[in-house]
């Protein structure tokens, strides 16, 4: 049941079909290059794109902009303590700032980091230290159609075989990403988290949880893990996060803010090291690259994220959106995750081979048809890897209503009707770094 009503609204409009065609062409068939005002329903990301509550806007005004010892920092510290159970916090400008601070402290050249699946900035920060990021998803994670309660889990078998190969002394870091964004936003069970803790102890590694979507994960645990059937979201979150030595957090997700992030830990020695690195890259440790008002809003957002009514509405909205798409026959990754619905572009456009970028062709078709912006996560974004051809439609928090999502389903249905005529794409120009090509490369239709 919906847990909020609108107090401020923002005008949006569907540009004419002609304008959409022109905008797409001018953007080089890359939706990252579209002007946001040319987009009607923007599902590019759930990161920093949500609506803040009236309480958060009020907190913004009360933000304390002191360089050192800001009251807003004290508020963040108590929110992180009460909601997540950690006593030391180092604020950063966003999640990747936290990754730089923590992974720059924990990793050295030649190390190996294990993760259920590295998100792309995580992978890049691990690699930036000269270390090797190795994914350990469970086998089901990349099966688009099999049902399963916790397809985001960390595979201990896979992790043990990596350790057998490289030796435990090369593996100082084990990361668990909840929910598993790169595996369609699938949740991780608390039981799996306990096993990962034991494994990290066995190999004497630091155990970090990437907690970006910790509240959504806790909501899935409440529904799917029998032991927690009667537990409150806040209790589950504290239990799960409590197994880690440290957290990296992007406040732009379950911090319910438009900017911000942090590292949290109870380990005093690690805290000291992170603070020193934060001063170098982020700012003094009581603001860390954030305005004091944003710190204050994030403190409120963290508490709101674990409210039962908020987070239930959140994952139910994504589930209802998935059902709308399935009802019109769109092949999707099942079950839907916590923040997005992932479309199976390979099954939608079977006449296109991976080198004709079916995912990107679908992204362009959705925009052309209905002004909807999603993001490709297939052979265009991950060149040279053997990934399914997915398109992510991420749902910003507390932003769109059922009518908006119905428009997306109607758009997808219209695209399905003309699917045989959808052309593949080829790269027209691309940047030097292949891992980042989907942000800035331009494409053109193959038949042009
Ligand atoms: N970790 C995970 C699991 C993420 O999903 C993200 C961001 C980050 C770290 C980095 O956080 O953006 O605040 O620097 N994910 C966004 C997305 C960008 O669209 O999924 P950030």
Automatic annotation (TrEMBL):
GO terms for biological process: aromatic amino acid metabolic process. The keyword Lyase applies. One of its GO terms (molecular function) is carbon-carbon lyase activity. It comes from the Archaea. Signal peptide: none annotated. Its cofactor is pyridoxal 5'-phosphate. Keywords: Lyase, Pyridoxal phosphate. Belongs to the beta-eliminating lyase family. NCBIfam families: PRK13238.1 (NF009709). This is Tryptophanase. It comes from Natronorubrum daqingense.
